[in-house]
Amino acid sequence: MERPWLLLALVLLSAMGRSTAIKLKFQGEECLSYTFQQYEYFYGSFVSLPDVYGSTAKYDLTITAPSQQKLYEVHKESEATFHLVPVESGSHKFCLKFNPDASPTRYVIPRDVLWNINIGYSEGHDKVEETDTQYLWHHVYQIDGQVQELKSTLHYLYWRERRHRETVESTHKRTLLYAVLRCVVLIGASVGQVLFIRRMFSRR
Length: 204
Fold this sequence. Notes:
This protein has helices at residues 4-15, 134-203, and strands spanning 19-26, 29-36, 42-48, 59-64, 70-77, 79-84, 90-98, 111-119. By secondary structure, it is an alpha+beta fold.
């Protein structure tokens, strides 16, 4: 007798190997290649992390099919998500390019970008046989796809929130440093004025 919970666990465990989440570190442009079958749904995202100056760079993302047809483009964004169904099989090219005109800092330095991509269907989803368990497998694969998409979305939201938090913390540190320096300058100016007045009267 088939055990539904066992089937679900096996499918969810196999899903873990079909997602890719990496931290890229590059200066101008970085291109990645992934091979997909025709109509094999995939989705992903990228999040730009703060650089050494505490600012978040902007990027252009271009996804190109094996026939060099552009499937997706986004410009001047620090984060984005994409959901696509390729119309042809083969190697698809994903290129992230630093956009200096839209970025707070134009310096071309190594920056970190979190890259995440997932295939939306389970392995073997097209191999389900006509048996009494087909209805169960159908729903198991549906749940598997939804879990993968939810995992990808949570991953994207986590890194976006982390980037925003790092930006706020960096701004707070700079503001605090500016306030301390301002207080030091004011105190130094006040002490200098007192010493100058005392010295002026002592000469008389």
